[in-house]
UniProtKB/TrEMBL annotation:
InterPro entries recorded: Leu-rich_rpt, LRR_dom_sf, NACHT_NTPase, NLR, NLRX1_C
SUPFAM superfamilies: RNI-like
Keyword flag ATP-binding: yes
Protein name, entry field: NLR family member X1
């Protein structure tokens, strides 16, 4: 028989004969502790084998004469074991959600490869993954970042960290022999949390021995407190803090997982541990006076019935004043938590950073391309997860888990903090945020898990600019979930250059329906994505009036889907298909369906390799169209004869204006700045040689028209436009 006794530190065993009597009869009724002691003494069932697990501080509770062998389980001492764990965990079937088997397995292999390379070059991550439970945390975070495709996401990042702590510390008391019976997690929040918070506030991640003593030992006054600290240093310290491996910082400590510093700092603040001396003394006095006043009040109320003394009601009220006054002070404390959250969430010095999800991804998988050594500290530490964790900890689910860990956050406290946040967080969000910061704000709202608060915050967002944010499936799910708390129309949603694909559009579909102006440029959206866009535009609830698809490989097949959408749509007024590889055939398909549309006002078909036939056909259809009055056709392969035919169009006669060049006879076109602005914005993404040829032709056309006019005012206008074109040509030639 093999007995496995797990967690000896929870039992207070007494091996003295006077404390626990000898027992060799399995049938004799004795207390459980006596059974365990006699098993370990080998007095009861001596032939049985016994394995005991315990924390280091409790090892000596069993006398050495009863122990045959000691073994310390350290972790993955070999990085190959770490890699094997990651490979097995990340290759589990079903972890990739709805993706097809081929693409998901490829992505999993890529993740394992990137993680392995980062482990080889990043000693600090390898040191963290020495502990198998941190390997679990890394894999769970990667699952969250890469394989979340549900709306709303089934997990939150704060929930992962809270579950990780429950996995390791659920039901754990720091020292079962101590009368305070403080939970291990509560002690960690008070001590390590304080260190983490002070590090966040001073923007540092490396801590000296002096820093540790300042946080852990400065308030130690009793023998009991020193004993608890000794147990903590023996059992828990190395789990959260590890020696730094950066050159020149060998005698300092860092948090084993960097994000854990921000989580514990957030927990320290939300639990209300960040108090001044006056606040702590006030709380203790309030509790004492509150308890005493209840007893005294009962006695005085009885006396007042027998002896009608006038001063008794006054005395009763005086006894109640202090607890009431302190409750008001605690309300101010909730305002301070909300203020801290808002200040940290909207720090202007963080405006140029990547969003937090990309930061986490880089910290785990590393950064591709040239970079400084991974174990070198960055120029400036970033702590943008800190306020997001503060919001996440306040969610109902995380509060319930923390309650099990001995860290209680009352419903009323969470409600009051949320109420105070409305004055700070929502007000500051209305000022307009850069794309990466706006993504962080949306992620904060997702982590907070408060639907009413989120709805109120989102109603104030009429314009959502996320251009150049790498919109992974997780970020798309977060955006769809957060925006889904309300049903208001969005004036503008900018998703330019966001790495969108067909699955992204599918996730965002309910949000896209409510957007009046929709920017989807530079996203590699091909025919399959155009099929989703067709379904979007044909939906009865679609309100999209301005759709920009410039610089996407739409092609002829994609044009077919968009043409079907144009025929049945009732909301679209402006459509940009600039540089979408339509060609003549794709443009012909759009022209055929254009007659069925009754609302389009402007159509951009520039830079699509159109010849005279397709361009003139589109214009002929536009002439008969009820509302279409502007067609962009610049940077196409239109001949001189075709240009003359398009130039002869008159708005008052033909009802349509074709934007082909910068001149209008012997004058500059009214739309010259519009055309050059479009070219300027797209120079980095277009074929430079072809653009250079087009600009050279435009310059010749400008010079020719300038020579034909005698009006000095017009000549000056021509010279101004020519200088702008020459600047662009200069930039192209110098590659800037």
């Amino acid at each position: 028989v093999l007995f496995i006794l797990n967690g000896l530190e929870r039992l207070n065993l007494d091996f003295r004969l006077a404390g626990t009597e000898l027992c060799c009869d399995p049938n004799e009724p004795v207390p459980p502790s006596a059974i365990v002691v006699n098993l370990l003494r080998k007095y009861l069932l001596p032939e049985a084998s016994i394995i005991v697990t315990t924390r280091p501080s409790a090892v000596r509770r069993i006398p050495g004469k009863y122990v045959g062998r000691y073994a310390e389980i350290c972790g993955f001492s070999d990085t190959n074991l770490q890699k094997l764990y990651f490979q097995m965990r990340l290759s589990q079937p079903g972890c990739s959600g709805e993706n097809s088997v081929g693409s998901s397995s490829g992505e999993q292999e890529n993740l394992v490869e990137m993680l392995s390379r980062n482990l080889e070059r990043h000693n600090q991550i390898a040191a963290a993954c020495f502990l198998p439970s941190y390997c679990w945390l890394v894999c769970t975070t990667l699952h969250f970042l890469y394989f979340t495709r549900t709306v709303p996401p089934s997990q939150t990042l704060t929930g992962i960290y809270t579950s990780f702590l429950r996995l390791n510390f659920s039901g754990e008391v720091l020292d079962s022999t101590d009368p305070t019976n403080i939970s291990m997690m509560k002690y960690v929040a008070k001590t390590v949390g304080k260190l983490a918070y002070e590090g966040v506030m001073s923007r540092k991640t490396c801590f000296s021995e002096d820093d540790l003593q300042q946080c852990f030992e400065v308030e130690m006054k009793t023998e009991s407190e020193l004993n608890l600290l000794e147990v903590f240093r023996s059992d828990v310290f190395r789990f959260f803090l590890t020696p730094c491996v950066q050159p020149g910082k060998e005698h300092t400590f860092v948090f084993t997982i960097p994000a854990m510093q921000e989580y514990l700092a957030a927990l320290y603040v939300v639990l209300g541990e960040k108090k001044t001396v006056a606040q702590r003394v006030g709380k203790e006095l309030s509790e004492i006076i509150g308890k005493v006043s209840e007893d005294v009040a009962v006695v005085l109320s009885i006396i007042s019935k027998v002896l009608p003394l006038r001063f008794l009601p006054v005395l009763l009220n005086l006894l109640k004043i202090f607890p009431r006054y302190f409750s008001r002070l605690s309300g101010k404390d909730r305002d301070a938590i909300a203020h801290t959250m808002a200040e940290e969430l909207f720090k202007e010095e963080d405006y140029n950073n990547d969003d937090v999800l990309d930061q986490i991804n880089s910290s785990i998988l590393g950064v591709e391309g040239p970079m400084h050594h991974p174990d070198e500290a960055p120029d400036d530490e970033v702590f943008e997860l800190f306020p997001i964790f503060m919001g996440g900890i306040l969610s109902r689910r995380n509060r319930a888990i923390l309650e099990q860990l001995g860290c209680s956050i009352k419903n009323l406290a969470a409600f009051e903090i949320a109420k105070a946040m409305k004055k700070t967080v929502i007000r500051k969000s209305r000022k307009g945020l850069p794309p990466s910061e706006l993504m962080d704000y949306l992620f904060f709202l997702h982590e907070f898990q408060n639907e009413r608060f989120t709805a109120e915050a989102i109603r104030s967002l009429r314009t959502v600019n996320l251009s150049s944010v790498r919109m992974t499936p997780l970020k798309c799910s977060v955006l769809a979930s957060v925006m889904g708390t309300t049903c208001h129309e969005v004036e503008e949603l900018n998703l330019t250059s966001c790495n969108l694909d067909t699955s992204s559009l599918r996730i965002l579909f309910p949000v896209l329906l409510r957007c009046k102006a929709l920017h989807l440029q530079l996203n590699s959206l091909g025919p399959d994505a155009c099929k989703e866009i067709r379904d979007l535009l044909l939906h009865e609830k679609c309100v999209v009036s301005n759709l920009r698809l410039a610089n996407n490989p739409v092609g002829e097949q994609g044009a077919q889907y968009l043409a079907e959408a144009l025929a049945g749509n009732r909301s679209l007024t402006h459509l940009s298909l600039l540089h979408t590889a339509l060609g003549d055939q794709g443009t012909e398909v759009i022209a055929q369906h254009l007659a069925e549309n009754q609302h389009l006002q402007e159509l951009n078909l520039g830079y699509n390799s159109l010849t005279d036939t397709a361009a003139l056909h589109v214009v002929e259809v536009a002439k008969k169209h009820a509302t279409l009055d502007k067609v962009h056709l610049y940077f196409n392969d239109i001949s001189e004869d075709g240009k003359r035919a398009l130039h002869s169009l008159r708005m008052d006669r033909d009802g349509v204006r074709a934007l082909v060049f910068l001149t209008a006879g012997t004058d500059v076109s009214d739309y010259w700045s519009n055309i050059l602005n479009v070219v300027q914005k797209n120079l980095p993404f277009w074929d430079r040689e072809r653009v250079r040829q087009h600009l050279a032709l435009i310059l010749q056309d400008l010079e020719s028209s300038r020579r034909q006019t005698a009006n000095p005012w017009r000549k000056a206008k021509f010279l101004r436009v020519e200088s702008e074109v020459k600047k662009m040509l200069g930039k192209l030639q110098h590659g800037t």
